[in-house]
Write a structure and sequence with these properties.
single chain, 10-stranded antiparallel β-sheet
């Protein structure tokens, strides 16, 4: 009888040899299949600094892939089909793709549902949502689909992915949101519900939304708000809306700390971060944080929990606190805002251009006395010729001394942040950011003095003395270019800790107007532009900077690409 496993026409010994050959062939196939996924195991966990949690097979982009999950990365490589010739030379060319888990903000189970079906459905796999960098500082979201029909397999992976995401700090789970429906072209509500809210929902963030109905509404809500219930506060609006929310957030912190809100020499830090969704005309704070006016980018910075500590100023009179803020202008910048607010009935872009040109046509200086305390810097960190520069600083170790200057000024700027915008791509106060140190002329990356000026209790004080309209326009146009806007004989810049501005009676008026002005006239209240919000005050204004008083959702401006925006209003 012929053995059952012996080939026909072959003796038993030859058949046994053939069986042994098949066994060796099977072992070779197994080894070859193991080599097909070997690229993922080429780096040991100790070398990579990570321990794999899970390993499995998913279909990604219509290709079966070997997928490995660790605390830091999700990586996969296609499983290549076996070559008919047994050639493994092509296996080394299999590309490996990697996702950093810090860039993932959401994970969902993917199901197929019928029309009208809201729950259940056939499980198709897992969808991972990732934050992706685009050009010009913009962020966007993208989805990666991992297909597998096994319920147990997908639920195990889903659980581990969620645990990793929940381990990231600073990512909010609950937000208090303020939306100003009257900002710019009345598009803030549309921006929030069409672009912002879907991303918050996708990331599993709960929101409590207040649509503001009048000026000061957000401030009144924040005073009574239990901020412990939220991980952050978000404002959807322009500079004025953001200024109000930031002021309310810090004022609430002082009230909760039992501080006297009329005199706060050392305020306490805001308890939760503030997020800014640009929906206004200028959006200076949003440009400073994100480098671009882009609602999706701003939202993703909030979702990802990117935190940037920022200096804040207090603006006060001898008798009361006026406002917490980031920047202020007195003179031309304030007069322009005052005129624009009087013409709210005009379209936003036309109102801004009209106010700018009208104020420029009626250009008048403000007579005032300005006192300031220069910032202290370490000795020996700048060259001997620094004394010749117009940027004034003070060497560390000397006592705080008030310096005074008085005269007629076209504009006075006091800024704790760079104040980037489309009209000033380098910022209204570039010496507050990591771009070019006006203290010693070095690049910020190589200057120890400059690095200490960021978020370290310093402000930029920029004084534009009285000059001709032509020269003033040249100075303004410099903000739109790469040239130094401070390189004029009538411009002085200082890096300071405190500033006092004392306007003179009748400042900004000619002799005839000053003579006819009544003592009780409202003209005695001089306008101030504080973060795009108009305030009027007659007495001296004292400005102090407080280091890192608030956390904002965003990134350091040093990490942003330089904007190429230009100005079309001059």
């Amino acid at each position: 009888m012929r053995p059952a496993d012996a080939p026909r026409g072959k003796p038993r010994s030859q058949a046994m040899a053939t069986g042994a050959g098949r066994s060796r062939c099977s072992e070779g196939v197994v080894a070859e299949r193991q080599r097909r996924v070997a690229p993922l195991a080429a780096t040991s966990p100790a070398e990579a600094g990570e321990e794999p949690f899970l390993r499995g097979i998913f279909e990604i982009s219509k290709r079966s892939c070997d997928v490995v999950l660790s605390a830091r990365r999700l990586r996969w490589s296609p499983i290549l089909p076996e070559s008919p010739t047994g050639d493994s030379s092509m296996l080394l060319q299999a590309p490996e793709e990697i996702i950093e888990m810090k860039d993932v903000f959401s994970v969902k189970l993917k199901r197929r549902r019928f029309v009208g079906q809201k729950k259940g459905g056939m499980l198709l796999g897992i969808t991972i949502f990732k934050c992706l960098n685009k050009e010009e500082n913009k962020l966007t979201d993208c989805a990666i689909h991992l297909h597998n029909l096994s319920e147990d397999h997908c639920h195990s992976w889903f659980k581990h992915l969620k645990e990793i995401l929940n381990g990231f700090q600073n990512r909010p789970k609950s937000l208090k949101v303020f939306v100003n429906p009257r900002s710019h072209k009345r598009e803030a509500t549309h921006i929030y519900y069409e672009q912002v809210s879907p991303l918050f929902k996708l990331a599993g963030i709960k929101t409590d939304v207040t649509i503001t109905e009048y000026e000061g509404h957000a401030l009144s809500v924040l005073k009574d708000c239990e901020l412990q219930a939220f991980d952050g506060v978000v404002c959807v609006g322009g500079d004025g809306s953001v200024s109000e929310v930031a002021h309310g957030l810090l004022l609430k912190a002082q009230i909760d700390a039992g501080k006297d809100t009329d005199y706060i020499p050392k305020p306490v830090k805001a308890p939760v971060p503030l997020g800014v969704i640009p929906a206004g005309t200028t959006n200076i704070l949003a440009h400073t944080l994100y480098g671009v006016k882009h609602a999706v980018t701003a939202t993703l910075h909030i979702v990802m929990g990117h935190i940037q500590p920022v200096d804040v100023c207090t603006f006060s009179t001898p008798s009361k606190l006026l406002r917490f803020g980031f920047s202020a202008m007195f003179g031309f910048g304030a007069r322009t805002l005052e005129l624009a607010e009087k013409h709210r009935w005009m379209p936003a872009s036309q109102r801004k251009d009209f106010a700018f040109l009208k104020t420029l046509a009626d250009l008048k200086p403000e007579e005032c006395e300005i006192s300031f305390v220069p910032v202290q810097i370490p000795q020996g960190d700048h060259h001997e010729n620094d004394r010749k520069k117009k940027v004034k600083t003070k060497k560390k170790g000397s006592k705080n001394q008030w310096h005074k200057t008085q005269g007629h000024f076209l504009n006075v700027s006091i800024m704790a942040i760079p104040c980037l915008c489309s009209m000033a791509p380098r910022g209204l106060a570039p010496n507050t950011r990591l771009c070019c140190c006006i203290v010693c002329g070095h690049s910020w990356s190589s200057c120890s003095v400059a690095r200490e000026l960021l978020n370290n209790g310093s402000m930029a004080l920029i004084l534009v003395q009285n000059t001709s309209r032509t020269e003033f326009i040249k100075h303004l146009k410099r903000y739109t270019s790469e040239r130094n806007q401070f390189n004029f004989p009538f411009v002085e810049t200082y890096t300071v800790q405190e500033v006092k501005v004392q306007p003179r009676l009748g400042s900004g008026l000619d002799a005839k107007e000053n003579k006819c002005m009544n003592a009780a006239s409202a003209e005695r209240h001089h306008p101030w532009n504080i973060d795009g919000d108009l305030l009027k005050e007659a007495s001296e204004v004292h400005v102090r900077v407080h280091p890192q008083l608030i956390n904002l959702y965003g990134v350091n401006t040093d990490d942003l690409e330089r904007s190429q925006a230009t100005c079309n209003c001059i």
